[in-house]
Q: What sequence folds into this?
């Protein structure tokens, strides 16, 4: 009997030990390739993977959560986090847990896109090696939602940024928390390229201080020259400078077909003439 006691104790230890060992040990990101070979192969070319190689980037389980149960259940999709199946706000919060600390991204939680139920995954594919992990490049991505604005680029005159450079993001910040006021846009956005038009000037065109460039220009596209909101320049000017505020000899009939800027050449602002006459 005494000889049996050690054997029984040893058997109990083995049974207890076996119960404590999980069915599958903690998985590594490399194990995901056993089933998701194509996805993992594409991921290895992304900026995320490059950052991981340097010791600071995310892996599969950083976004999809622990994969143990998922593998135990033969790849059950309900046993893993699938950001594409989550509500927009929840999936975006996962991205912002890392990217929210970046300058220009921290305000995305209060952004216009977020309030419109547009999330990170609507524009970005985290498994893609494309520039910025974008689903489409340039203006084509924005046009998939902003179709009315995109249509303006098909007008006789349009802003060249639609086809050159970074496109819409040259002027618009998709992660911004609010729309920039039109009066600030003149100096902060248009002025980055059109510095000679935005000043500062000693005598500024009042509309630049109140409503900005968009008062006279339809920046995406127009039928008028210089992207003006009206085809005839004199009619555009008279929409603000009516007969009550201009000299009598400035009648619309007299100057019909003429350009106000023939005399008021410094129409955006001047340092010498309060009437924006030639300097």
A:
């Amino acid at each position: 009997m005494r000889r049996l006691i050690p054997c029984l104790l040893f058997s109990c230890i083995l049974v207890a030990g076996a119960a404590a060992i999980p069915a599958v040990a903690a998985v590594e990101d490399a194990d995901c390739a056993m089933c998701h070979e194509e996805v993992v192969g594409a991921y290895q070319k992304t900026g995320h993977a490059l950052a991981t190689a340097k010791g600071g980037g995310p892996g599969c389980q950083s976004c999809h959560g622990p994969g143990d149960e998922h593998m135990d259940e033969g790849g059950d999709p309900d046993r893993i986090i699938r950001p594409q199946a989550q509500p927009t706000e929840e999936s975006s919060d996962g991205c912002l847990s890392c990217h929210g600390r970046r300058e220009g991204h921290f305000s995305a939680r209060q952004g216009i896109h977020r309030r419109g139920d547009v999330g990170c995954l609507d524009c970005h594919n985290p498994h893609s090696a494309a520039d910025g992990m974008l689903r489409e490049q340039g203006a084509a991505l924005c046009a998939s939602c902003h179709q009315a604005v995109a249509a303006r680029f098909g007008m006789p005159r349009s802003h060249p940024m639609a086809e050159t450079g970074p496109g819409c993001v040259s002027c618009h910040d998709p992660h911004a928390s609010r729309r920039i006021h039109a009066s600030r846009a003149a100096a902060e956005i248009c002025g980055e390229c059109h510095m000679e038009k935005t000043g500062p000037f000693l005598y500024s065109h009042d509309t630049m201080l109140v409503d900005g460039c968009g008062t006279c220009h339809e920046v995406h596209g127009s039928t008028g020259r210089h992207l003006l909101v009206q085809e005839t320049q004199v009619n555009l000017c008279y929409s603000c400078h009516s007969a009550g505020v201009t000299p009598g000899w400035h009648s619309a009939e007299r100057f019909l077909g003429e350009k106000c800027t023939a005399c008021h050449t410094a129409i955006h602002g001047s340092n010498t003439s309060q009437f924006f006459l030639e300097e």
In short: The radius of gyration is 31 Å.
